[in-house]
Design goal:
By secondary structure, the chain is an alpha+beta fold. Helix content is about 40%, strand content about 15%. α2 (about 30-45) runs antiparallel to α3 (about 80-95) and α3 (about 80-95) packs across α4.
């Protein structure tokens, strides 16, 4: 099997990936696009009730892709779909061999921290008496953001 990989990869026994030089050729670091995805999704989860908001009447394509049929699996929520979108963005370059798996994980959490700091700053200038945001973080913890700080509970 290694000889087939070696001949396919131009004299390398590294597993086939998008780039022949290997995966990755640099130290681990967070990914900008994944950090932005984490921040954007966190802001959306804070502004909208995504946890308890089901997606009404979801559909999926048929096997041949020629039509849409009703989705029959577990209930889909806006929160779940936003988390899935952020995860797909974060792991996309892992597949190409540009980042490590841990980079995607940490990038989403870094983006979440950036978004929380923005939400804290925004809370200070709202007209409401005690503005706050409640949402579930990427690790499943409930996060409450107020101008005075961030409070986590499970």
């Amino acid at each position: 099997m290694l000889d087939r990989i070696e001949s396919y990869n131009r004299e390398s026994v590294l597993l086939p990936i998008a780039f022949p030089e290997g995966s990755p050729t640099h130290p681990s670091y967070t990914a900008g696009h994944a950090t932005v995805a984490g921040a954007c999704v966190t802001i959306l989860k804070a502004l909208f009730d995504t946890e308890n908001r089901p997606i009404p009447h979801p559909v999926v394509p048929t096997a041949d892709g020629s039509a849409l049929v009703p989705y029959t699996g577990p209930a889909l929520t806006l929160e779940g779909e936003l988390n899935k979108l952020a995860s797909n963005i974060a792991t996309g370059r892992n597949i190409a061999g540009v980042h490590w798996r841990s980079d995607a994980y940490e990038s989403l959490r870094l983006g979440q921290k950036v978004a929380i700091s923005i939400l804290q700053e925004q809370s200070k200038i709202h007209n409401e008496a005690n503005p706050y945001y409640i949402f579930r973080g990427f690790d499943g913890e409930r996060i409450v953001v107020r101008a005075g700080g961030v409070f986590n509970s499970v």
